[in-house]
Amino acid sequence: MKGKCYIQGMAAITPQNSFEGEIFQQPMLTATTTMLQCVEPDYKTFIPGNSLRRMSRLLKMGLTTAIKCLQDANTGIPEAIVTGTGKGSLQDTERFLHDIRTYNEQALNPTPFIQSTYNAINGLIALQQQCTTYNNTFVHRGLSFESALLDSIMLLNDGVTQILTGAFDEITAEHKFIKGRIRHWREHPVRTSNLYDNPAPGTIAGEGTAFFSLANTASPSSYAAITGIRMMNWPPADRLGTLLTDFLAQHQLTVPQLDLVITGRCGDSNHEHYYAAMDQVLHNTCQLPFKHLTGEYETAGAIALWLAAHMLRAQKVPAAWFPMARQMPAALNHVLIYNHHFGEQHAFILLERIKN
Hints:
The chain is of the alpha/beta class. The chain contains 11 helices and 12 strands. A hairpin with a 3-residue loop joins strand 11 and strand 12 (345-352).
């Protein structure tokens, strides 16, 4: 990836109080569970009531997050809308499939089918913002958001000046049960604040939405700069250290120059060897896992990016959300995100502080 892009505005709906107010003043919400669901805002502030009645939960979350992001950036109509999702609207998909069986494939309501398509949220945003330009949704499993981010950066390099980039995924009880059959989740409920204390097979399911207003130039209100991204499928654990050092070298950096690494560690012992391999390279670098806040899902990396950008601009860590933080560096200049989805798709995202 060549060049930089700058985060001008952003918003997120997560299982924490992330949508309203200052995240550095919010307490961490914890639960003893195997599934985390989002703390949802009052949608009526953003979406007319007659539209709300026809929208499923994920559509409400995605559209509201996008609107809040554009408000935070104080910008006009985006020149492109690019998103990533692992599953799209599960609620609508399940409803449509149940209706097929209930009504014996006759007299079906088309609304759940229309809203179950992966690009339904993009279409809603485009209609609301009257955006008739580039509009794309990536569905690449654990690299869905990273693919959307890379596409956005390429568009910015080609002359587009402002892009709305986001990610969205939800969890339902039925989907959790299905993925539980292949042992994705913990067998017994776990206290989220203690997720990393005793690694065991499986983790906790999660969900969330995040949107970013990206630009090709910085401004005084920019959160951070995204300087690099690399995606990998099934990399051997013993090669991760070399892949990381090569990635940093492409951006004229070395491991000691990293001030913080945000990792996708999720307490799943089946994939702990990847992080153990990274620990050998990053043993002197501060590392913070984040999935005790969100749970595991395909586009959780978008929340890591949202957290990293907040930290870089504020030059501090939300202490209540990261009680495991110890001996934080005096300044945050370079932050790396390393995340993977059940050991299959891996990604590095590199950010740097914007010094005014």
